[in-house]
Amino acid sequence: MTPTLPQPAFYVFKCQQSAPPGMPKPSCVKAGDQESQELFGYMAQQLMTKGIMGTVQPIQTSCLGRCQQGPVMLVEPGH
């Protein structure tokens, strides 16, 4: 029998998509935005420091459809 890996209880999706120039809708993340990458890294580091990285899984994702409100994160389940 193959051992199964425990599944996270929560997923935190962070938008990292930047629209190319000329797109009709704005991006919540600018291309090459170092601050956005640093925020994701900081979040992951804090999850590790608090010992909950296995329970909470951070995921970089594309557009979450809330660009005008951006930068956007979504927590599943429970949003």
Notes on the structure:
5% of the residues are buried. By secondary structure, the protein is an alpha+beta fold. It contains one helix and three strands. It has a three-stranded mixed β-sheet with strand order 2-1-3, with helices on one face.
Topology:
Blueprint: E1 10-15, H1 34-49, E2 56-61, E3 73-76
Parallel strand pairs: 1-2
Antiparallel strand pairs: 1-3
Beta-strand fraction estimate = 15-25%
The tally of helices reads 1
Mean pLDDT, nearest integer?
Answer: 82
List the domain count as a whole number. Answer: 1
Order of helices and strands: EHEE
Radius of gyration: 15 Å
- Shape category: elongated
How far the N terminus sits from the C terminus, by CA atoms, comes to 35 Å
The CATH class turns out to be Alpha Beta
CATH architecture: 3-Layer(aba) Sandwich
**Which segments are poorly predicted (pLDDT under 50) over 5 or more consecutive residues?**
none
State the fourth-level CATH superfamily: Glutaredoxin
- Strands, count: 3
Please sum up the structure shown:
The chain is built from one helix and three strands; from the N terminus they run E-H-E-E.
Output the keywords.
alpha+beta, Glutaredoxin, three-stranded mixed sheet, 1 helix
